[in-house]
Structures are given as structure tokens and as C-alpha cells.
């Protein structure tokens, strides 16, 4: 990860997954309001989507793992150099382990969707585990680095911890659209923050990194982190508007009579009270 | 914010909102006991109140944002001074960002009350988010300041964190008057604590600030913080007594027969068991 | 508090209350199993007990407050000495404030039991508040003291925080005997720990306090704290055995026929499944 | 504990209990799906298993307590050496106390299974208490040791704290297989981590311990901890597969007709929806 690309890659992965999870949650919510009327809200499709999601996650994790191991300067699967008597590229192994746990999430997703006897909450636990492991590793990752470097990683630790925490609470509460969107917003925040770290530590212009002992930079990154979160909120808002509009307009084609529209209105009311 | 007025303004805002939220919770609770008999407890009115509340919150946030940007010595929307090569008034941007998130709460309140398909818990999440963001920013706000200054802001961080935490738990539990009043009491505490900070750091007499390295001052502010909380509890108690008396006396005018009073008594008992 | 008596007094108060709360919880649990058959389990009695409990708590708090203010060397209600320009006996004011919040708990208990419209969870919130305020004050209480002194107070902070936390969770969960006993065990632990602090810092023999920089003392106090907790568990176990035996033997007198005993057995089974 | 065996013993104990708890949870889950058809899922057997479990736990704790007290160099039940005026082997007493609390868990398990009037959640509370006490003692255990020694114990503190936390949440939620497996995985992690600590601090080869100030060792142990967790997950996965296969194949012998198999399939679906 010790370059711009190494931060842009996980950033992009998290952004894609964040957008996908937000879309999935909103679609489920929108379809639940218009229930029994569509193939898209059916259980069979959901299972297929879960399997696809798991496969994509697993693929991303494998790309990440291979990238960390076999990039020039990576550990190439060697853990200890017995000749020189020191560990080989432990930071690379750190990143490898993080990707590995996200790969496990993908595998669990696939297993929970194919083997019916497996409890669904297992996938949720693995999900929050992956984020907690990421938190744990990043927390012990920045020893001996400079203030600015440590600080941007601390913010990463903060957001991964919060993601894990929210995912963990989801095991105990019933499906709650607001909590799911909160989790997605944290994933988006993490994604764009990875990009920000890349820009700060390895500027694209090839110029020097930001002054790592100037406290003003830390003051700025504090608000910058919040603005990244605003961006995540805006993106989720846009997805919400778009998906809701899509589901509604799609339904209009089916129920082009006034009766259908009235029914929808009734259902909306019902499902809202249900929440 | 670097003067007395900059602390009195948010203090006043929080105090007004704290009193309002306590009043709203108690009114809802009192009307729930006498249900179906009044327009004031109806859903239509509640929606209008929510919209009004959102508008007021939004207005306060805009005033705060403008004040932080365009007061003499503010950043005037400039983030980076390329000539001199340093950030412009980052503390002002910090405050601006906090106000911005409270503005978002106002907007979400309005949206959740007008667009019926939006889940109500979204407004609660934005609410707790705003307090957590405030916690986060204040936590990274006082670098390099003196002990007393840091301490009064740490107490602020404590109370905003607790407010956010209580607001977050409200997403998961059913409406609970006691938890709502707890949250309101924290908001009141924050409001009066802002005033206290103003008095400590920028004494109105124009005299010097308190001795910032005398540990006795910190010892005093510790108990002072608790006394502010006692004040918040007393104010909420007074609001409770007043609102309950108001609702009861208002009902007497409608049901001036003994039958009505008996009915009320029955209802009270029922709704209490319901809690 | 700066002597042995100042620690023995709150220690005794907490021990009495801890034993009482454990007894109350176990009695409620035992009577619930044999329901509808006894005056002792009736709502009317419970209300009277709550009022009595509130009065006792309030009385203890008043004794504590007066003791802190008017003992020789106390602040005598003076907060600031304008002549000498320094605060008066802030540690005394700290203790005063803690007692004050426990007094508030007593007042809330009485109010919640007499005014029926008040929600019962309000008393629980004030209860957890009192412990959190105690945690907050003790946390900011030991500035500039020696290692051993700080450590014994840190353990106090730990146990008051846990008590507050458990009391706070009780707002959200249904009555749960195990959680109530956990809370009572923490209160007992706090009570006996106050005595331990007294013995450590102000030995009764009049000899010198323990060596406050010897780390072995801290190592010992760590296990000693656990043994205090074992003591609390044993005491609660004894109370449980005694109360259960008392309730059972008391019932035998009423239902001296085999039918009654069989009925009891049935009820036991029912109520256990209910839990 | 100050040698390899002192760490291998608790490590083995925790590993055995972790495997057993995982097996028990999965068996309960598997039998619940095929309910009313087997003696193995009956309440009577469960009670006996609980008593056996409690006895084994108690036995392990007694072995540990005796080992800590009466190994050469142990305290031999002496707490304070009045002649030399210092505490005797406080680290041994630390370990003794931890074992003692696990012994209490065993006793509570036995009591809750034999005395029917005792609430079942009491055993759960004692369970989480034992882990919290372990956390507390290990947290105050490593004063003045070297960086590596402190770090491996910090990771132990982390995992015992998480175990206690998950066990504590189990008091409030309904039986949830995923949470139970999470707890078991933490117990397994703790078990294998004890072995790892033994290998790190007291290498079997008799050679010197790892370089305790080389930060690379800490970097490695960070990922190593995660790999131990992966191992725990794999073991639980294997147990899950084996137990599920066992329960299914066992049922085939009973229901060798197609009707039985169909019924099973139906039940599986039902119980899954139930979750």
C-alpha cells in the first residue's frame, strides 16, 4: 500500500461496495412497500444477489491479496528471512490479512445463501468481524511514523470501528433501513478517505507530501473528514431519490389505472406505520 | 467563536432547543394519556410542528454559519491562502462545519415530515450524527491550548458525546419519555456550559481570563459542571409540572362533569401500565 | 472525607443500600413466583417501600452533605475566599455534590411513587445519573496525588461507572433479577471498597499510610478488589438463600395442605418458563 | 504462570472449553430444527450436560488454583511475609484469583441446573463476570515489564474483554447461534493465544525469548493474532459441518422413509424462518 495506487484500490473497492449496499437497502425498503407485486423483491432473486455480492467481494479481496503479495517490493509469500534474521514486509502482510478477512465475508455470504441451514446472522457477524479486524490492524500499524501519517490512519481506524459497531448492532435489531444506510455511509466515508490519504501522503503531482508536523494540516483534515461524510450523505440521498423514483415509475407501467395508484398510497401508509 | 458572543450564541441556541425538546416530549406524553380527545395531540399537528422545528433549526444553523464566515476575522469562505501558503482561519471552518451538520438535521426533519416514504428514524440518525460530528471536531479542536481551555472543551466533548449516544439508542428503543428527557437535559447542559465557557475564557468584565494553569480552577469547574446539570434537571422538572398542569386544566374545561374526570383517572392508570 | 470516618460513612451507606436492594430484588422475584397470594407482594406495599427507600436515601444524602460542609475543616457553605483569592475546600464541595445527586435519587423515588403520572423509568435514570456523576467527579478528583491514592480511586471510578452502566441498561430491559443482583453486587463492592480505601490511606493503627510508590501494593490491591467482589457475591448468595427460605416457610404456614404445595410447585415451573 | 507450562495449561483449558461450547451451541441449534424427535435435545439431558460442564469447569479451576499455589516458587497460601515485610508472589495470587472466578462459574452452572428456582441468566452473568475479572487482572498485571511482554498480554486483555462483552449481551438477547459461536471463537482465540504467549516468552528450544524491544516482533504478533482468529473460525466451521452431518445422518436411521426426509425439509424451512 505504500504508494498512491495502494490506497486508491481499497478506496475504490469500498466506494463501489458502499454504493451497492446503499442501493440494495433502499431497493429492499422500496419493494417492501409495494410487496408481492414484483419479481425484483422476491426471495429467489435476493439469494442470487447475495451470491453475486459474495463473489464480487471475494474477487476484490483476492485482487487485493495478490496485489499486496506480488507487487514489486511485496513479501512474495515469504514471512521470515532466515538469512538476514528479520521479518519480511510485515506491512504487506498486514494489508494481506485485512483483505483476507473481507474475502471470508464473501465466502460466508455465498455459504449462507446456498446452504439454507446456516443462520443468516453468521454473515452479519463475519461482516462486522472484518471491520473490527481492519480496525485492530490499522490501530497497530503506524508505529514510529510521523504525526500527520498517524492522524489520517487514526481517522481510518475511527470509521472502520464505527462501521463494525453499527454492523454488530444490526445482529440484534430487526431490519432497519436507517441503520443500514448509516453503515453504508460509513463505508463510503472510508472509501473516499482512502483516496484522501493517498493524496495527502503520496501527492499525484509528484511533489513532496504534506508537511507532517504542521498542526494546521491536522486541523484541516479534521474538517475535511467531516466534508467527506457530507459527500457520503449526499450520494446516499441521491441514490435514495433515484431508486425510489425508479421503483415508483416502474410500478406506474403495471398499474396504469387510478385504482392501482390509490392502492399504492394505502400500502405506503401501512408500511410506514409498520416501521 | 473566539470571543464571548461566539460562545453565547450557540449556548442560547442549544438552550432554546433543549427547552423546546423537553416541552415537546412532555406534551406528547401528557396527550398520549388523554388520547383521541384533542387536536393538539393529532398527527397532523405533529407533522406541522416537526416542519416548524426543522425550519427553526435550519435558520439557527444558517445564522451560525454566516456568523462564523463573515464576522471580522472570519475566513470569508476562503480555505487556503495560496500567497502566504497557509490555511485560513481553520477554527472558523470547524465551527462552520458543526453548524452545517445541525442545518442538515433541520433539513432532514423537514424532509421526513413532508415526504411520507422517508423512514422517521432517518431524522434521529442525522440528529445523533450532528452531535457525534460536534464531538469529533471539538475533540480535535484544542491542540496547543492551555490546560483550562482544554478542560472546559473536554467537558463539552463529554456532554455532546453523551447526547449523541442517547440519541443513537433512541433509534432502537420505543418512545420512552425518560430517555427523551435525559437527552433534553444534556442539550440544556451543553447550552449553559457554552455560556460558562464564555465567562471563563472571555470574562465580561474585560478582566483577564481565569488562571489557566491553576488546578483549583479545574476542580471548581468539575463541580460547576454538575451544578449546571442540576439546573437542567430543575428546569425540566418545572417544564414537566407546568405542561402537565396546563394539559390537565385544559381538559377540565372540556369535561366539566364528574364522569369526564373519572374517565381521565381511568386512562391515566391504563397508560401508566402501558409504559 | 480526608480521614477514615469520611470513607467509612459512605461505605456503610452503600453497604446498607446494596444489601437492601439485593433483598428487595430477591423478594420481588420470590413473591412473583407465588403471585396473588400475599400482601407482601402487592403494589400498595411496593409503593410504600419505595417511598421509605427514597426517604432513607434522602436522609443519608443529607447526613453526608451536612457532614462534608460542617465538619471541622469543611467549607461551611463558602465557595470562594475573596480575601485570599482562592477556592475554599473544593474536595469537600466535590463530596457534597455527589451526596446531593444521591439525595436527588431519593426525591425522585418519592415523587415517582406518590405522583402516579410520572414515568417509573425516571427514577431509574436519576439512579444511573447519580452513579455517573460520582464517576465523573471521582475521575477528576485525584489530581496531583500519589500513585496508590490515585489507583484506589480509579478502582472506585471503575465500580461506580459499571454500576451506572448496569443501571442504565435496566431502563431498556424488562425486569431481570440477574441484572438487578449484578447492580446490587457492584453497590456492595463499592461499599466495602470505601472501607478498604479508608484502611489503606488512613490506617486505624495511627501508623503511616501504605507505601504509595511501591508497585507491589497496587498488585495486591488489584486482587484485593476482586476478593471484595467475591465477598459481595457471597453476601448476595446468602441473602438469596435466606429470603427464598423465608418466603417458602412463610407460605407453608398458609397452605399447610399438600394441594397448596403442589400448586406452588406448578407456579414455580410457570414463572421460571416466564423468565 | 511464569514458564511455558503455566501458559500451556490455561491455553489447553480454554481450547477444550471453546470446542465444547461451540459443539453444544451447534448441537442445540441442529436439534431445535428437528425438534421433539430425540432424547439428545431434551431438557433433562441438557440439565445433566450443564451439571457435567460445571463440574469439569470447577475441576479445571481447582487444578489451576492448586498449580498456582503449590508449584515450586508459588506462594503456598501465604499472602504477606511479615518477616521480610513484603507481599509473597502476588502474580501467583493474580492467577489464583482468575482461576477462582472460573471455579465460581462452574459452581453457578451446577447450582442453576439443580436448583430450579434460580434464574438461568445468573449463570450467564457469572460467566461474563469471570472474563471481566480476568480482563481486569491482566490489565493490571504487566507493570514494569518489557514492551513485547506487555503487548502480548494486552492482546489477551482485548480478547477476554470481548468475550466478556459478548457474554454480557447474551443476557439480554434471545438465544442466537451466531452470537454464541462468536463467543466460542473468542474463547478458542484466547486458548491458542496463551500457547503463543508461551512460545514467545519461554521458547521451547530453551533459547532466549524474542527480542522484546524490536517493533517488528509486535508488527508480526498483530497479524499473528488475526491468524489465530482465522484458525478459530476454521475449527468452528469444521465442528459445524461435522455436527450437522452427524445429526442429519443420525436422523436418517430413524426416518428411513421418504416421508421422514420430506418432513425434515419442512421443519428446516420453518425453523429458519423462526430465526
Write a structural description:
Chains A, B, C, D: It is a multi-pass membrane protein. Chains A, B, C, D: The chain crosses the membrane at residues 12-31, 51-70, 90-110, 122-139, 151-173, 185-205, 217-247. The structure is a homotetramer of 275-residue chains. With 275 residues, the first copy, chain A, is mainly α. Helix content of chain A is 76%, strand content 1%. Chain A is built from eight helices and two strands. The first copy, chain A, has a two-stranded antiparallel ribbon with strand order 1-2. The longest helix of chain A is centred in the C-terminal third of the chain and has 40 residues, at 215-254. Chains in contact: A-B, A-D, B-C, C-D. The interface between A and B is medium-sized, with 31 and 29 residues.
Amino acid at each position: 500500500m505504500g504508494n498512491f495506487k495502494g490506497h486508491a484500490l481499497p478506496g475504490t473497492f469500498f466506494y463501489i461496495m458502499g454504493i451497492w449496499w446503499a442501493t440494495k437497502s433502499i431497493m429492499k425498503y422500496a419493494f417492501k412497500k409495494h410487496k408481492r407485486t414484483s419479481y425484483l423483491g422476491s426471495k429467489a432473486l435476493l439469494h442470487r444477489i447475495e451470491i453475486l455480492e459474495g463473489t464480487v467481494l471475494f474477487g476484490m479481496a483476492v485482487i487485493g491479496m495478490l496485489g499486496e503479495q506480488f507487487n514489486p517490493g511485496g513479501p512474495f509469500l515469504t514471512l521470515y528471512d532466515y538469512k538476514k534474521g528479520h521479518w519480511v514486509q510485515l506491512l504487506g502482510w498486514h494489508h494481506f490479512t485485512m483483505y483476507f478477512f473481507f474475502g471470508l465475508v464473501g465466502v460466508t455470504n455465498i455459504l449462507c445463501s446456498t446452504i439454507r441451514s446456516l443462520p443468516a446472522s453468521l454473515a452479519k457477524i463475519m461482516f462486522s468481524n472484518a471491520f473490527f479486524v481492519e480496525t485492530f490492524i490499522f490501530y497497530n500499524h503506524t508505529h514510529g511514523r510521523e504525526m500527520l501519517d498517524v492522524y489520517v490512519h487514526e481517522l481510518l481506524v475511527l470509521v472502520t470501528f464505527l462501521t463494525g459497531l453499527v454492523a454488530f448492532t444490526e445482529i440484534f435489531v430487526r431490519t432497519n433501513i436507517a441503520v443500514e444506510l448509516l453503515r453504508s455511509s460509513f463505508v463510503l466515508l472510508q472509501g473516499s478517505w482512502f483516496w484522501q490519504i493517498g493524496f495527502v501522503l503520496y501527492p499525484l503531482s509528484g511533489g513532496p507530501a504534506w508537511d507532517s508536523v504542521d498542526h494546521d494540516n491536522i486541523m484541516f483534515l479534521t474538517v475535511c473528514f467531516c466534508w467527506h461524510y457530507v459527500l457520503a450523505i449526499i450520494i446516499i440521498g441521491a441514490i435514495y431519490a433515484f431508486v425510489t423514483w425508479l421503483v415508483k415509475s416502474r410500478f406506474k407501467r403495471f398499474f396504469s389505472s387510478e385504482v392501482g395508484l390509490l392502492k399504492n398510497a394505502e400500502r405506503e401508509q401501512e408500511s410506514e406505520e409498520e416501521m
